[in-house]
Design goal:
- By secondary structure, the protein is mainly α.
- It contains 15 helices and three strands.
- A three-stranded mixed sheet has the order 1-2-3.
- It is globular, with a radius of gyration of 21 Å.
Length: 338
């Protein structure tokens, strides 16, 4: 895969990728149908089966599959925030709000923070909004005991992937961002009310035991999947982080965002977001056109993509070493200090 020069000049092949930014109405409608209808069908069918005494493990299995469909619904939401899913701004807002309610994520405020993430991905001088907290080795060594302890807790795989996902989506997404506008506050409130409404309806219609057995595992699978995908798309070895004076958008996209090669079924459920280097290069390309762009542009094709096995190693990479330009584990950092 070719990368941009450090000068930040636009690669010669880059303008040709713009054609893939055009949304395709037929594919957008098809994706809504094959995502939201199966999700709704699983919820309703499981509720009926539970009321007729279906075994708990069958309902739990359906919850896991429904969670995967929620991940796919989140990718639709994500595309709508980029104005890429539909050609109509109003359609992107409407369906972004709807899928945001289903995935417990406010459209306006998430769109704002995620936009900041895109604008500054891999920029060491502009971290902290919409990204995974990443300290440099120098910063970690200079930090006090409390900050080190908090950072180690945050980067601990158990907390990161088993505890934080539901907290992020169910709790933190309910809290307004600092300096949020009136529209963002109203959007967050309406999302919270909408999400609460469908959960309450489900509870009264199917029973709160069904919400605990089906609803919570479904949401847990969905939030875990979302956090995992976001994490591995940028936390891998080798990666890309640069100071402001050396940072450029093309290198950040092509070196600092992975092509996460997944089995076909998982690629489908994750809405092609594994082609993350293309997504950061052209955020206005809808998820249903990312693979098309990948196959058409040779310079975007990756010889050694990030595999599931390789991505697991990313759980144990914690600190960015500016001197070696690599992510290190806490253990590697400790050895270097000896």
């Amino acid at each position: 895969m070719q990368t941009a020069a450090k000068s930040g000049r636009v690669p010669s092949w880059y303008p040709g990728t713009k054609v893939f930014e055009t949304p395709l109405r037929r594919k957008a409608i098809g994706q809504l149908v094959n995502t939201l209808l199966p999700w709704l069908g699983l919820v309703l069918t499981s509720a009926v089966l539970w009321s007729y005494g279906a075994p708990w493990f069958l309902v739990l299995l359906a919850a896991i599959v429904a969670g995967l469909f929620q991940v796919r619904a989140f990718i639709i939401f994500h595309d709508c925030t980029h104005q890429s899913f539909w050609s109509s701004r109003k359609a992107n807002f409407f369906w972004g709000a709807v899928t945001g309610i289903l995935t417990f994520t406010p459209y306006r405020s998430w769109r704002k923070s995620h936009g900041i993430h895109h604008a500054h991905n891999g920029n060491l001088d502009k971290r902290g909004i919409g990204d995974v907290w990443t300290m440099t080795l120098t910063e970690y060594r200079a930090a006090g005991k409390l900050k080190r302890a908090l950072y180690r807790l945050y980067r601990n795989p158990v907390f990161m992937f088993l505890v934080s996902p539901p907290l992020l989506f169910l709790v933190l997404h309910r809290l307004p961002e600092k300096g949020a506008s009136r529209a963002e506050l109203l959007g967050s409130l309406s999302t919270t009310l909408g999400s609460s409404f469908w959960v309450i309806v489900l509870g009264f219609a199917a029973g709160w035991d069904f919400v605990l057995l089906f609803g919570l595992p479904m949401v847990y699978v969905a939030t875990l999947g979302g956090v995992w995908m976001f994490y591995v798309q940028h936390q891998f070895d080798p990666a890309y982080w640069e100071r402001e004076e050396r940072w450029n958008l093309f290198d950040a996209a092509l070196q600092g965002s992975s092509y996460y090669k997944l089995p076909r079924l998982l690629q489908w459920f994750s809405g092609n977001i594994g082609f993350h280097h293309i997504h950061h290069l052209r955020p206005r390309i809808a998820n249903y056109r990312l693979e098309e762009c990948y196959l058409a542009v040779q310079e975007l094709q990756v010889l050694n993509p990030l595999t599931i096995r390789a991505s697991l190693k990313g759980m144990f990479l914690h600190l960015w070493d500016e001197s070696s330009q690599r992510l290190l584990s806490f253990r590697q950092a400790a050895r270097m200090a000896i």
